[in-house]
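Hey forum,

I'm writing up a methods section and want to include a predicted complex as supplementary material. The small molecule is 2-acetamido-2-deoxy-beta-D-glucopyranose. I've pasted the protein sequence and the SMILES. Can someone with a working setup run it? I'll credit the forum in the acknowledgements.
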Amino acid sequence: MMLIFGLVSSLEVGVVSAGPPSVFNILDFGAAGDGVADDTEAFSKAWAATCKASTGPPSMVVPKGKTFLVTPTIFQGPCKFHKVYIQIEGTVVAPNNPNKWSGIDASLWLQFDSISGLDVRGGGEINGQGQSWWKQSCRYNSKPGCTWTAPTAIKFNNCHELRVSNLRIVDSAQTHVLLIASQTAHLFNLKFVSPGDSPNTDGVHIQNSQHVLIEDCTMQTGDDCISIGDHVSDIQVKRIACGPGHGISIGSLGRGGTEVSVEDIHISYSNFFGTTNGARIKTWQGGRGFARGISFEHCNFTDVENPIIIDQYYCDIRGKCKSEKNAVQISDVTYADLQGTSKYPFAITLNCSESVPCTSMKFNSVNLLSSRGNVDTKAFCINAHGEATGYIHPAIPCLG
Ligand SMILES: *[C@@H]1O[C@H](CO)[C@@H](O)[C@H](O)[C@H]1NC(C)=O
Ligand SMILES: *[C@@H]1O[C@H](CO)[C@@H](O)[C@H](O)[C@H]1NC(C)=O
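Reply by user p_vandermeer:
Happy to help. Structure tokens for the complex are below, copy them as they are.
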């Protein structure tokens, strides 16, 4: 598989072009590749050459067998050619010291901005070296000098026709991949790895974006494997192995009274292993707008704390949010062919808003047992309306 991939890519990127070169190897731009010297300038120069190449498609190559230290960098588009490759075969590492971000935006490490037709791939690794950031995070330990913001490893902003595949994305200081204001993206064959207790390390977070397909990924992180933000539609998620982590989450939506529009989100053929949540929708009180046309189908849960959960009272600090009238309207959510085990008795929780109930909820063939021996599972259900068909266990009291 990888061999064929390699052949195809060298044909595509190398051999076809005549005239000026369309392969830009960062070693030719002065990179040391020893993991110690700062190779940022080589990356910036190689990117500038790649992005302005008029023959191609051009490809920036990060070669195999070497480690490149890169400080926070913006790879700016638009580029001249309609398709641009970044072939990462080696390892790219972030500085391991938060001091390297002093005086600059601490939310960024590698940012790709306004590039159409970007294709990032290559079998290599992107390593955020987030350990020092996690230690000083306020998330689990609020102390003087702690920080809430840490660098996202890879941010795609305003990138259309994007492809990201065949990479390991490791130990991000915060979110591993952030997709923002982007249309038409295909993420596949990616492996995300960071410790289960690393704070805020979402696998992929999607915000203000449409037409995204994520498939065949392994996600082992300290936060949501995938999370979906306020203005997002037409998302397909397939064949994800999630865990450790917090599951696949729509939300949290509507923080601070914002208006949200989330629709057409479909998650299927995915497995959750020991995660805190599985299929989750969470909204803040006071939000407005809607989350609708959502489905979770053909998924397995193994020892998951809350396999199915809707929480319309989400609050980052329990009990610190005051009660409000407005709520994001949740409707047309399908749960079908879901099975597995729950760590806690409440395998299903539908905690919907009192003022704006959940409507058109559909359950079909859902079977969740306890992973703790002889305990039976239960469902909690309030302000939710809809129907349950097929075998449902535990029974959901508020659905007909
Ligand atoms: C769920 O687990 C069952 C039994 O292990 C397996 O047959 C099925 O293929 C799994 N489903 C998915 C979506 O992987
Ligand atoms: C539902 O939400 C209410 C309000 O925040 C909370 O008090 C209650 O514990 C929640 N119930 C469950 C089962 O999560």
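Some notes you might quote in the supplement: The chain has three helices and 29 strands. The pocket of 2-acetamido-2-deoxy-beta-D-glucopyranose (ligand 1) is lined by residues 269, 271, 298-300 (CB under 6 Å).
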